[in-house]
Amino acid sequence: MTGSSPLNDQSVSLRPMGPVTEASTAKALLALIRNPLDALPPAVFTEPLVFSKTAGRVSIYISDPALIQEALVKNADVLGKGDQVRRALGPALGSGLLTADGAHWKWQRQSVASAFRPSSLTELQPAMLAAARQTSDRLLKQQGETVDIGHEMMKTTFDIIVETMMSGGHGIDVNRVERSITDYLRPSGWTFALGVVGAPDWTPYPGRRRATKAVEFLRSSLSSVLEECRRSPSDRHDLVSMLIAATDPETERKMTDEEIIDNLMTFITAGHETTALGLAWTFDLLARHPEYEARVAAEIDEVTQGGEVRPEHIAELHYTRQVFSEAMRLYPPAPIITRTALKDFKLGDYLVPEGTVMFVPIYAVHHHAAIWSAPETFDPDRFRPDATKARHRYAYMPFGAGPRICIGNAFAVMEAVAVLAVILQKLRLRTAGNTPEPLMKVTLRPRTSLKMTVVAA
Could you say which of 3.40.50.300, 3.40.830.10, 1.10.630.10, 3.90.550.10 is the CATH number of the domain covering 2-456? Predict the structure, then answer.
């Protein structure tokens, strides 16, 4: 149920639209289980602010960039991650950077910030290019064959994150990690739906046992990586070494092994899967728009002068970056941000009561009719410098917004441009049929695998 009347400090008042029936609640919960994108009120694609009532609870959906800025930036200190995030990600990520709040979040972020400074990221470019070349060589051996480009990109970005951030990974099973992340995220719609109705955390649901086993494998694998790093320390200044050395400036305590693993889990899931998905969607879009693919290939040839892609080339591939940015507009890897009001605060003309759950539906913002011209059309020129400058800063948020913006956003874009350049220099990927439906399982995945045929350039 949606409406546009103000919230006030006495009660939540909605424009009368008829009673909220159990049938409508059941329909909303079924949509959450199937695909949370389907549970978004349709008005979020056309209106700036929407109030929705499900299972007797009122939530706010913010699609207006100015209101998003007011909520996530100006009022960041009165917003917490909330129960939805805790239920969906807490079992795997514990109280790591993505799930923590307050002072615990702040010192964790400060402890790894130097790993994501521009100077530090530049040093990682050779490893990114090396992983991309391995993928390119692997794909070239499969000319004429059909590959799952999502799987190929998962392997590529995992190789990069392990080599650059986790001291080489010490033999971690890449394929099983990918399967385990999928097993964990697959039933996430159930966790969202059960959270809406206030079901206890122990409530059983389909896929829960497999998800639990997946988490156990992932965390035990990272425990082994951590043990090896402690046993054989190196002079590598990577994420693992930073987490081991991190000290809370207020309490002077160091992270426990569990807390280090929480953060390694965060960077594995948020640091490789989201970029891999963005790359998979990009290859699919380029295959369906050969005129843009040709422009990318021409830029790569011009910048490299026909030679191997080198680290200094990455920053010069401006159009390639525009293509990736437009792919993330259409298919933002993290399609919804959730926050809970820790106390009453003013948002626009409304007073938001403590405890209100707020959603920033990034997928809807990126497809919003009032923000984008022809929002369903793939057009990389939207990200020319002049077009970007003319747009509100919070009209485009593939990495979130405010103080909690993804710390690895520059890493992800640099990585994606490197991978696209290396692969498209040597080969093309062709697709058949329609693009699969986007499916939210915390991240935005294709409902069916993106199968593509490898062709030499």
Answer: 1.10.630.10
